[in-house]
Amino acid sequence: MNYYLDVIKRYADFAGRARRQEYWMFVLWNVPIVIVLTVLDFVLGTYPVLGWIYTLAILLPSLGLSVRRLHDTGKSGWWYLVSFIPFVGWIWILILMATEGHPGANEYGQNPKEIRA
Fold it and tell me: Which DSSP category does 12 fall into?
């Protein structure tokens, strides 16, 4: 849960680097939240109001986390625009998000693994 809250606290922070663990733990917490909100939307008959409100609320934090994750792999945050290419873009972003970050410092900051160790 701390990984999720840490991302929310860094609401629109696009600087620095994010570890794979931070990214995937955020995704792991997001999936059940979206499922619960979708079920609530159907039960309350408000579909898709709650889902859209949640999506808009976490848009900037998740975008910031994605950019920081790209920074960890040595890529610019602009690489996230690749995800808008149909089918191939999502696969490429998935591969980039799963790729191990560069060891040591890069132009975006220190390796987060070394900072927390």
Answer: T
